[in-house]
Amino acid sequence: MRRARTSAGPELERLVELLGKLPGLGPRSARRAALHLLKKRDALMRPLGEATLAAADKVKTCSVCGNLDVTDPCGICTDTVRDGAVLCVVAEIGDLWALERSGAFAGRYHVLGGLLNALDGIRPDDLRIGALVSRVQAGGVTEVVLALSATVEGQTTAHYIADLLADLDVTVTRLAQGVPVGGELDHLDDGTLLTALRSRRAM
Fold first, then answer.
1. CATH number of the domain where residue 112 is located
2. Count of CA atoms in the C-beta half-sphere (13 A) of 81
3. DSSP track, 41-110
């Protein structure tokens, strides 16, 4: 079957192809995004291109926690106001950003770069788990918060890390799970309700 082509030449095809590689964008969404960018080339497309080049040149991965910033170590790792004794472990940088948006955490982070997944071939050596253990062994960390998803992969990773840290002088905790703020019981799945019941506490 002949592959469908655009009528605007290889440049547009290349743009659509690259946009289609972004998470959440299939071929149709990529074409719509490309057309929108071209319609707004002065207000959006050229600034986006400049911002992309600037980010590619200046943004670095923090060698300490795995966050992205223009400095290494990143601003969070060098912030003297933050509590360096509490380390929050997340799977991806997006999780770190979500916690930062909440403003609820004032410690430091460690980004694993994913979760253990035997089916996808993601093993401990593929993640920044060894670097986490080294940070704890270096001293100064009294609590490790495992802020990982409630999926099978998240829980497997959490248990694996907890086992590695069991012999070290550090408290390992995890985020509470259960009924979300504003959530109605009849809208929740069975797993969430079960976890909420098991995690109940005195009022």
1. 3.40.1360.10
2. 4
3. IIIIIHHHHHHHHHHHHH-EE-TTT--EESSSS-HHHH-TTSEEEEEEEESSHHHHHHHHHHT---EEEE
For residues 125-152, give the mean pLDDT: 95
Print the domain residue range for 103.
68-174
**What span, in angstroms and rounded, lies between the C-alpha atoms of 54 and 72?**
17
Total domain count, the chain: 1
| Cα 50 from Cα 33, distance rounded (Å) | 17
3-state secondary structure of 186: helix
Higher-pLDDT residue of 193 and 16 is 16
CA distance 141 to 151: 27
CA distances from 74 to 24, 43, 127, 139 (A): 28, 31, 19, 20
